[in-house]
Amino acid sequence: MNANLLLAGALLAATLAPHRGLAQAAPTNNNVILYIGDGFGLAPKTAARMALGQGRDGKRFTTDPGFQILSLDKMKYNATVTTHSLNSWITDSAPGASVYACGKKGKQDNEVLSLDPTSGLPIETILEAAKKQGYAVGIVSTARITHATPAAFASHIWFRDLEDYIAAQYVASTQAQYEAIFNASPTASFQYQANRDWVLPAPKVGVEVDVMLGGGSRHFLPNVASPNEAIVDRNGAAILTPAGTPATLGRGRRADGVDVVKYAVDQRNFKYVNSRDALLGLDISQFSGPTGKKLLGLFNASHVNFEQDRQTSAPYEPSLADMTRIAIQVLQAKSKGKGFFLMVESGRIDHLEHANAGGISVVAGAAGNVYTVDADKPAYAGGGEANYVATPASPRTTDVYASDYMIKEVIAFDYAVAEGRALMAAPANGKTLLFSTSDHECGGFAVTGLHDEADAQQNGTKIRTYSGQIKKANVAEAGFATPTGLVRGDGGPGGWYPDYVLTSFQGKDYPQPASATARRIVVAYGSNPLTNGNGTRASTGVGSNQGATPGNHTPQDIWVGAEDNTNTHAVQLIGRGLLDNTALTPIMADFMGLTVYGSTLGIRASGPNTNPSADQLQLSPVPFGDKFSVSFTAPTAGSVSLVLFNEVGQRVLTVLTDKSYSAGAHVVAVDGSQLRAGLYVATVTLNGQVLTKKTVKL
Question: How far apart are CA 270 and CA 276, in angstroms?
Answer without folding.
Answer: 17
